[in-house]
Design a protein that fits this description.
The chain is built from 6 helices and 13 strands. By secondary structure, it is α+β, with helices and mostly antiparallel strands. Strands 1, 10, 11, 12 and 13 form a 5-stranded antiparallel β-sheet that branches. The protein has a 4-stranded antiparallel β-sheet with strand order 2-3-6-7, with helices on one face. Strands 4-5 form a two-stranded antiparallel sheet.
Length: 276
């Protein structure tokens, strides 16, 4: 009787169309205990405590996010920041070295365990007089230094949305925008290789809305999946932030991320800009 039930169920599946069979989002279960590296969300009290610890020893306008890292913050105190620009500097190399030291000392919050990976992609030095309040000593004197360290890369894979930029004066760093992750694990084998990922996405319908609330849809074609790259994606899964290794595709004006271990589609979003 038990075997008969299974046979009936199997025949039912064969008779169903693709749309009638509920699609499973997960192709493979995670069997590697090291994957993914994850960070648990803090309670409001823990987040407040982390903020206090981060602020020790340095005037900063940066905020700690709900996972304990330096987040993107535009908090500011104009009058206080203006005072920080009073002191001028000429030794740019020394200030950059002190910035790297600070990021390492605050590694619990910045994720920087090795300063040798901090290679400035762009350096912006300037003198701001705040409407004539400050007078420049000479042409080699500045009172602001901005550094773009680019995005974090692990074993050649870019960590998505990990741009790290610093804003500093001779008084030290007062803005840290973004952070890097202290630990990332990349499985040695992709359970979902690129061919399987392409087959999963080809024919997949993407849906969304434009800036006027009009529903949009797009069906991914074979040519849409010709261009791809592998990245590390910080994925918020409930009360955890998980560092997932993904294939990234950009069909038309959409972005799709599919986990290389489980086959889950973790992100599908319309990246077009709609003007209101």
């Amino acid at each position: 009787m038990k075997n008969l039930c299974w046979l009936i169920f199997f025949i039912f599946l064969l008779g169903c169309s693709k749309d009638e069979i509920p699609e499973k989002n997960i192709l493979f279960k995670i069997t590697d205990s090291n994957y993914p590296v994850s960070y648990k969300k803090l309670t409001p009290q823990q987040q407040k405590q982390k903020q206090e610890e981060f602020e020790k020893g340095q005037i900063t306008f940066s905020l700690i996010d709900s996972f304990g890292f330096v987040g993107w913050s535009f908090e500011d105190d104009f009058e206080l920041r203006k005072q920080l620009y009073e002191k001028q500097f000429s030794d740019i190399s020394n200030l950059i070295a002190s910035i790297k030291k600070y990021l390492f000392e605050k590694r619990e919050f910045t994720g920087i365990n090795d300063t040798s990976v901090l290679v400035p992609q762009e350096i912006d030095i300037r003198f701001a007089n705040f409407g004539g309040i400050y007078t420049r000593i000479d042409s080699t004197s500045y009172n602001h230094l901005g550094i773009n360290f680019g995005t974090q890369k692990i074993e050649g894979l870019e960590v998505y949305n990990s741009l790290l930029t610093i804003s500093a004066t001779a008084e030290g760093i007062h803005h840290v925008f973004g952070h890097w992750y202290p630990e990332v694990y990349i499985p040695s084998v992709d359970k979902v290789n690129i061919d399987l990922a392409k087959s999963v996405l080809t024919g997949h319908e993407l849906t969304g809305y434009d800036g006027w609330g009009k529903e949009l849809s797009y069906v991914i074609s074979e040519t849409d999946v010709d261009d791809y790259r592998k990245i590390i994606y910080p994925y918020i899964n409930g009360n955890k932030l998980e560092l997932r290794v993904c294939w990234e595709f950009k069909p038309s004006h959409w972005q799709v991320l599919i986990d290389t271990t489980t086959g889950e589609i973790l992100l599908e979003q319309d990246i077009a800009s709609y003007l209101h």
